[in-house]
Design a protein that fits this description.
Elements: H1 2-12, E1 15-17, E2 23-27, E3 32-34, E4 37-39, E5 45-55, E6 58-69, E7 77-78, E8 83-85, E9 96-98, E10 107-114, E11 122-132, H2 137-172, E12 189-191
Parallel strand pairs: 2-11
Antiparallel strand pairs: 1-4, 3-9, 5-6, 5-10, 6-7, 8-9, 10-11, 11-12
Bound molecules: 2-acetamido-2-deoxy-beta-D-glucopyranose (NAG) (5 copies).
């Protein structure tokens, strides 16, 4: 029964994802893309999303917007001077750019989304940024190998789960034909993440 509920949820709910890699090393002074995408089989309506930076426990809101319906570009309110919204609702993309990073920008970035069609369930994907002096080549290739192996394993288990979910789904819903839908790979979805984060303005530039 638990599995049944879980897989039905997998099909109906919004997925928020940072993609295959959720940790990134970037060089001090560079500009990084903080990726986040969403997907939903039942479609979206008034999809609210925001980005927060977890500043040692204090949530700092970086930007927020509402996407009224699919394909309509959101009007994004940005509260951080080095943040730029680069997503597009045409590609379900709610990524942001963080310009000219410093060591103080290290930490967790939370991409939060809530779909009105889903009775306001919360979805959060977490992206971890590490700021380094320079990226060491050896470490980098090792990381890439580890990440791709991990990615393969995770990908396989997702495929397995989706197939299992499909089987369960169709066994238990024989009469009712749902439209098929593919969920893009994403491994970092957590539900009901933070709540009531303060909307602090991060107005001061960092030296
Ligand atoms: C980081 O980069 C900034 C701008 O490029 C530079 O001013 C600063 O000195 C650098 N910090 C360190 C610790 O290298
Ligand atoms: C983070 O918070 C803890 C306690 O909440 C404090 O001891 C620590 O110094 C803080 N670190 C930074 C970098 O602010
Ligand atoms: C990033 O740094 C460059 C060079 O210091 C500056 O020209 C640019 O305005 C900065 N961009 C932002 C968004 O702060
Ligand atoms: C989201 O948009 C940005 C900027 O256009 C792009 O660099 C990035 O690859 C896109 N991400 C996805 C998953 O499409
Ligand atoms: C979702 O998060 C909001 C705050 O962002 C909170 O008020 C609400 O209770 C949460 N909803 C659920 C179903 O957890």
């Amino acid at each position: 029964m638990f599995y049944f509920l879980f897989f039905i949820n997998l099909f109906l709910s919004l997925l928020v994802s940072t993609g295959k890699v959720s940790t990134l090393e970037a060089i001090n002074g560079s500009t990084v893309l903080l990726p986040c995408t969403y997907s939903s089989c039942i479609g979206i309506k008034n999809l609210y999303f925001n980005w927060h930076y977890d500043d040692n426990g204090t949530m700092i809101k970086l930007c927020e917007a509402v996407i009224p319906i699919e394909g309509v570009e959101p009007r994004v309110f940005v509260y951080h001077e080095r943040v730029e919204f680069v997503g597009s609702s045409k590609s379900n993309n709610i990524s942001i750019l963080l310009w000219n990073i410093t060591f103080e920008d290290q930490g967790n970035y939370l991409c939060f989304a809530r779909n009105e069609k889903e009775k306001f369930r919360n979805h959060t994907a977490i992206y971890t940024l590490l700021v380094v002096d320079q990226i060491k080549e050896v470490d980098k290739s090792l990381t890439v190998i580890i990440v791709s192996v991990l990615g393969g394993v995770i990908g396989l288990s997702i495929i397995f789960m989706v197939i299992k979910g499909l089987v369960v789904h169709f066994l238990l819903n024989d009469g009712e034909k749902n439209k098929e839908c593919l969920v893009s790979s994403g491994n970092d979805n957590t539900e009901n993440g933070h709540s009531g984060a303060k909307a602090d303005n991060k107005g001061t530039p960092k030296a």
